[in-house]
């Protein structure tokens, strides 16, 4: 085994293991809180869906780790299709959940005289349907992937495929019309979510800035509720900025694929690693806000 493959294997193993540990710990604490009847905030439902999507995205790091360590395991046709399909669905659901988290927090901290304040009482009731719509939307949009992915065994004309380490993907030139439609739908959904996320984050920054100016002279009298909302907003802003940076890097790599005659292994590994960075980092960015959940589980 070469030193490069060993380094890639160790990186994927560390990233997948730490990400899985953080997301599973957070998800288990939420489940434990549900069973014990502890009343959770409406925002916690979004975080649970986000955590679940992160776990599915991180699962793709397992075959990448095995391939880097030289394990000769090749999934069958159905396994390849399901692996790529649910990875893309979970990636989209992660984007939708992060967007919804930003929008909901912007509504929560909005002052009573703002236009967003009118949605404060309606927002908790539409969280569940919004999350369900997000999952259904990406389940439908990414169904195109099922037709383009196949296993690596017994393939005759290899010029029609691109090898992605352990599976094959049909060349874009063979499915140009379908691929263009798929890209339009995918880009449209992503642009809408990213636009909402950036707008909500800008609104939160403006609200926090004005709030800081108002309470500078009465800092000691700042209420605990206001402090907790500020801390939650800061955590979500950090989460959103991390997502936009890592997601943007991943999109650049995806758009780079069609211009390459041969799909290089390092390019595939880099794309999978960038996709998994946010899911692996996400629970650790939320830990500061959800220390109460971990304290509950420890008792």
Summarize the structure.
With 299 residues, this protein is mostly helical. The protein has one domain: Rhopdopsin 7-helix transmembrane proteins, CATH 1.20.1070. It contains ten helices and three strands.
Describe the 3D structure.
The structure is a single chain. This protein is mainly α. The protein has one domain: Up-down Bundle (Rhopdopsin 7-helix transmembrane proteins). The chain is built from ten helices and three strands; from the N terminus they run ααααααβββαααα. It has helices spanning 3-35, 42-58, 61-68, 77-109, 123-141, 145-148, 176-215, 224-256, 265-286, 291-298, and strands at residues 149-150, 161-164, 167-170. It has a three-stranded antiparallel beta sheet. Helix 1 packs antiparallel against helix 3, helix 1 (3-35) runs parallel beside helix 9 and helix 4 runs antiparallel to helix 5 (123-141). The radius of gyration is 21 Å and the shape is globular. The protein starts with a helix and ends with a helix. Residues 220-225 have low confidence and may be disordered.
